[in-house]
């Protein structure tokens, strides 16, 4: 059955501005494993006694975000607006939200818990992981209330969690649920860009995008990002373990820097070789070569013949990558591990199979640009994407 997932606010392409800053103390000082309760000794506050106390502790750090973008080429709808949520992670005015809320927007405004509305600018964004950092003016006196990042690696199925945000424009809403699953991968996301998500039954709705998912001690263990459409209380959050890796990069470079070859494809399945009796070998079947990419410059070729096998589509006829820097890549795990070792400006050596012959191809890898596939397709009011759990052989975009 095809399931569709609903992103919680409108996604638009754009460019992130790079600003160098130091990682907030809430990120730099919360590494390591922590039990969900009781609160660690270094937490400034003990675990709240009940949900009412937890709301009073966390809600001052939760903000409402409104953003506007202008498309001068669309005469019917030049201006588009979107509403989402965010969370303050540093008292100087550094906020965390989803990329699809603020990336590519011309105007961003933040409304604090006390009703104050302030202008914000984009510090950095990563559409692949759907994370963004924005900055509002620091207060003239004191500091803003900042949330504490917890340890999502310590979460277990059944743990209590709370989602805070501004669903459907209802400011400072809190919903309650449990962790329904961990390390969930969405099937419409390429394996090479996949992030393990927290699944929760805490109600998450349009407008919750970028809001915090907190444990019963009020520590942020995730950022709400996507919900399953046509289902009841199946939502997903980006885990804090990933936040701690990505946010410092956004603060330093304004983006996550990745190498780029410019191919899309998937692992050659044994059933495919057996059924079609084609000259196929184990490896990564190249289905698409991105225009202007290093792969195109190296004369790698994509597929031309569309075939559907057991409900999964293939583009046959393209090159097959059998090894990366001498390491075989016949499984998703092997190819994923090979990709992790590659760096921008490095040269990768590919073993490529074509028409019954094997050859060596070397490519220098530039920085990966923002690609159209980094964004899930969106509607005019709230983005909708066709997605499903990752149960089939995953695709790669690299």
Task: Walk me through the topology.
Blueprint: E1 4-7, H1 25-28, H2 51-58, E2 62-70, E3 79-90, E4 94-97, H3 99-102, E5 107-111, E6 117-126, E7 131-135, E8 160-165, E9 173-184, E10 197-200, E11 212-215, E12 220-228, E13 235-239, H4 240-253, E14 263-267, H5 270-276, E15 284-289, H6 294-297, E16 305-309, E17 312-316, E18 320-324, E19 327-328, H7 332-340, E20 347-354, E21 357-364, E22 384-386, E23 395-397
Antiparallel strand pairs: 1-12, 1-22, 2-3, 2-5, 3-4, 4-7, 5-6, 6-7, 8-9, 8-11, 9-10, 10-13, 11-12, 12-13, 14-15, 14-23, 15-18, 16-17, 18-19, 18-20, 20-21
Please give a structural write-up:
The chain has helices at residues 25-28, 51-58, 99-102, 240-253, 270-276, 294-297, 332-340, and strands at 4-7, 62-70, 79-90, 94-97, 107-111, 117-126, 131-135, 160-165, 173-184, 197-200, 212-215, 220-228, 235-239, 263-267, 284-289, 305-309, 312-316, 320-324, 327-328, 347-354, 357-364, 384-386, 395-397. It has 398 residues and is mostly beta strands. It has two domains: 4-252, Thrombin, subunit H (Beta Barrel); 263-364, PDZ domain (Pdz3 Domain). The strands form four sheets. Strands 14, 15, 18, 19, 20, 21 and 23 form a seven-stranded antiparallel sheet that branches. The chain has a six-stranded antiparallel β-barrel with strand order 8-9-10-13-12-11. Strand 8 (160-165) and strand 9 form a beta hairpin. The longest helix is centred in the middle third of the chain and has 14 residues, at 240-253.
């Amino acid at each position: 059955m095809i399931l569709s997932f609903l992103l919680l606010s409108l996604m638009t392409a754009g460019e992130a501005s790079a600003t160098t800053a130091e990682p907030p103390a809430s990120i730099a000082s919360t590494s390591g494993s922590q039990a969900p309760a009781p609160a660690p000794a270094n937490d400034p506050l003990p675990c709240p006694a009940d949900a009412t106390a937890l709301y009073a502790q966390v809600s001052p750090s939760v903000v409402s975000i409104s953003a506007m973008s202008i498309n001068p080429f669309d005469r019917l709808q030049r201006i588009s607006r979107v509403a989402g949520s965010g969370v303050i992670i540093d008292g100087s005015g550094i906020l965390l939200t989803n990329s699809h809320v603020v990336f590519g927007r011309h105007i961003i405004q933040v409304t604090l818990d006390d009703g104050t509305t302030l202008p914000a600018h984009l510090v950095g964004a990563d559409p692949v992981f759907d994370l963004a950092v924005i900055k509002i003016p620091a207060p003239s006196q004191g500091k803003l209330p900042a949330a504490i990042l917890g340890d999502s690696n310590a979460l277990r199925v059944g743990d209590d969690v709370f989602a805070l945000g501004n669903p459907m424009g209802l400011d400072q809403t809190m919903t309650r649920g449990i962790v329904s699953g961990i390390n969930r991968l969405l099937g419409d996301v390429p394996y090479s860009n996949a992030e393990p998500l927290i699944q929760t039954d805490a109600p998450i709705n349009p407008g919750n995008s970028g809001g915090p998912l907190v444990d019963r001690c009020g520590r942020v263990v995730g950022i709400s990002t996507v919900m399953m459409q046509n289902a009841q209380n199946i939502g997903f959050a980006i885990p804090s373990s990933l936040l701690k890796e990505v946010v410092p990069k956004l603060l330093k470079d304004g983006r996550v820097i990745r190498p780029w070859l410019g191919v899309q494809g998937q692992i050659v399945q044994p059933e495919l070789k057996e059924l079609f009796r084609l000259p196929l070998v184990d490896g990564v079947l190249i289905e698409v070569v991105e225009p202007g990419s290093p792969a195109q410059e190296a004369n790698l070729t994509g597929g031309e013949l569309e075939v559907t096998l057991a409900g999964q589509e293939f583009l046959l006829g393209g090159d097959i990558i059998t090894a990366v820097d001498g390491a075989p890549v016949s499984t998703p795990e092997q190819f994923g591990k090979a990709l992790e070792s590659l760096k921008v400006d490095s040269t990768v050596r590919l073993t490529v199979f074509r028409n019954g012959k094997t050859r060596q191809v070397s490519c220098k890898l530039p920085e990966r640009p923002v690609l159209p596939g980094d964004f899930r397709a969106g509607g005019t009011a709230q983005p909708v994407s066709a997605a499903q759990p990752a149960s089939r052989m995953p695709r790669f975009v690299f």
